[in-house]
């Protein structure tokens, strides 16, 4: 079976058991402060488990893009060094939301593995939870008994909390788990050590392939467990591992999931996979990481300097470093693997194929930039080497190794390798110490303590009324306190609210809550999965009193102008630039709108103007907003609405239309009743964000008016300065022309004067034996004139010793000129002489032996320069 057949078989198997096949959620998470990336199939269903939301279907199956590179589940360091961990992997899952439980989950997993996938039963082991005293949970007898019906008891093993109690993170839904492991070793090895001794022992060929989690608890922030209102099933099967088992391979990387990538990398690097351990690790790191990088970017997360973007950047750099060090790849290469991935994922994650060109461009640019940094790091290493050798030291200190790591992205092994080649060593302990110090620093910086929700009123569904209302009467459902870098913040959930929670680019509303006589300020509103969380300045004294919630309507009005204008400009960009324009990010605030989109070159002034014109035209048309709140996604797509990559959509969506032939978008945001409200639209900047991604910023309504008024004010000012000419542009042009002419004639005049000065200096030169001495205090308009005069003197006077103490437009400057023959015969050096002379004007300078200049601060020192120079000349 090919990997793609295996995936299909899994989904079909559960579809036949009445499961609904749903798409993978995006790998990059937007509305969950506790999680940056999807790390398990269950993330997208968290709210169903917690009872915050009712599932549309109670049985679901899917394959989920997961990334385990941060937080509780982090496999990054293992990746490449072993053969069965990955950064990005697919998790096949079947789910029951309050429907079937242990019996069916166990029965069906066994049926699929042994009947459909035909894995030999004698190679399988299962584990059940042994119980935990501290948590007060007993041995999972129930699961044990169900397994007994399928598998010999000698193959049912017990596992502790570590292996058999699954938790997503520090808090959240959790429960006892039952894992299925497979033994893929050769018969001879099995004869030596029985497989059950190797289960959960990090053996590369005795691995977990499926985890069945019986979700029944919620772990709170204080560590306590609480029974959930219903029992659920969450299973996760590692796709790459099941492929290894079914295809009878010894490594995930030997399956057809990875071999096409390894082959291509071998072609690119001219190296072979499967011969040398160090090289093999590099191969595995690279073919693993490129999957994580490509799928993140196609989900809308570009590499960047913070948060999720930084995680992606680090993964990318790790791949580049392995290629650079072990495969000798000194040019960008990762991006060349993208076409293979796009093809592989074409059916299951089509978003990659759809954005292939963009993904390649972004990766290539990021690689290029990092290779440059690496090279700078190598230069830095050169200078470190020089410093060490001059001080007779042969050890690169921990601090320096860490600087190379932190600033230039040099892993310790790379520094150590280069050190070794140069007969140096690295203080590795010192490096670890510096690393730990930084880790601690960032830990304490990121520390956020989230208290448990305190329930005031029961209720799970939060009603958002803000599409139609700016106020609402509500009650408080829950609140909690969050300590962020020692600042306390109160978060509060209402059963009904007009406050829009930041999402889809639109910022959160601010406003007030009146709770009996008290006025509470709402400073921001954010989403947490499906909850609308109000960030307020204090806990209301009377928590169970009626709440009157009211948003800052003036601020909201401006936000709404910008949001609707964003839709209009999106459509205009596609008209003017082409269909390849896709939204890549947006910010909609009360001050401006920012829109990032895919486009490969800078917009011309003409294109910008066209887009502005088109948007303003649509504003004047005063197109009424058409809103459809619950339209099936397929219908919306048929009507021309584009789904954005990296966004999670349900079966039904909200669709906003401004003229069905102009702008149709899937959107959760708030909009103007008709486009005329926006007033006007003006693009203020057009810049680049990353390879292939442009950014425009624009203003609307009164901000656009202000923008124009500001421009007009400048114009008026210039007009007044020029005494209101008939044609302002022409007047400025004329002014420039006149200025240039004046400049030219001034220069001519100055050069005439300089000529006269030169002649006079030559005439008055003092003869001292064969030497012509010119020492004089003069004045010139600029430094260039002094330089010019000095060279002319040198060319025209033989055996010259000249010192010019010059007033250059109020600043003292000296020049020393000595003919080459004197430099040699008298061993003179203008550079040295000038340093002495410059002291008189509190200045400094230098130059060559025959010519030097110096500037200074003390104009009154010039006569002193002349005196000292004359004394020097006498000594010649
Ligand atoms: N949530 C469990 C896991 O990630 C099963 O899907 O292993």
Automatic annotation (TrEMBL):
Classification via InterPro entries: aa-tRNA-synth_II/BPL/LPL, Ala-tRNA-lgiase_IIc, Ala-tRNA-ligase_IIc_anticod-bd, Ala-tRNA-synth_IIc_core, Ala-tRNA-synth_IIc_N, Ala-tRNA_ligase, Ala_tRNA_ligase_euk/bac, DHHA1_dom
Location of this chain's protein in the cell: Cytoplasm
Enzyme class: ligase
UniProt KW keywords: Aminoacyl-tRNA synthetase, ATP-binding, Cytoplasm, Ligase, Metal-binding, Nucleotide-binding, Protein biosynthesis, RNA-binding, tRNA-binding, Zinc
Primary location recorded for the protein, binned into one broad class: cytoplasm
Co-factor note (free text): Binds 1 zinc ion per subunit.
SUPFAM superfamilies attached to this UniProt entry: Class II aaRS and biotin synthetases (SSF55681), Putative anticodon-binding domain of alanyl-tRNA synthetase (AlaRS) (SSF101353), ThrRS/AlaRS common domain (SSF55186), Translation proteins (SSF50447)
Positions with a binding annotation for Zn(2+): 563, 567, 667, 671
E.C. designation(s): 6.1.1.7
A GO term, aspect molecular function: zinc ion binding
UniProt catalytic activity: tRNA(Ala) + L-alanine + ATP = L-alanyl-tRNA(Ala) + AMP + diphosphate
GO biological process: alanyl-tRNA aminoacylation
Alanyl-transfer RNA synthetases family profile domain location: 1-710
Organism domain of life: Bacteria
Cofactor(s) demanded: Zn(2+)
GO cellular component: cytoplasm
One Pfam family in the UniProt entry: tRNA_SAD
PANTHER family from the UniProt entry: ALANINE--TRNA LIGASE, CYTOPLASMIC, ALANYL-TRNA SYNTHETASE
This protein's domain notes: Consists of three domains; the N-terminal catalytic domain, the editing domain and the C-terminal C-Ala domain. The editing domain removes incorrectly charged amino acids, while the C-Ala domain, along with tRNA(Ala), serves as a bridge to cooperatively bring together the editing and aminoacylation centers thus stimulating deacylation of misacylated tRNAs.
NCBIfam families for the chain: alaS (TIGR00344)
UniProt record similarity statement: Belongs to the class-II aminoacyl-tRNA synthetase family.
Biological role: Catalyzes the attachment of alanine to tRNA(Ala) in a two-step reaction: alanine is first activated by ATP to form Ala-AMP and then transferred to the acceptor end of tRNA(Ala). Also edits incorrectly charged Ser-tRNA(Ala) and Gly-tRNA(Ala) via its editing domain.
Protein's UniProt name: Alanine--tRNA ligase
Originating species: Marivirga tractuosa (strain ATCC 23168 / DSM 4126 / NBRC 15989 / NCIMB 1408 / VKM B-1430 / H-43) (Microscilla tractuosa)
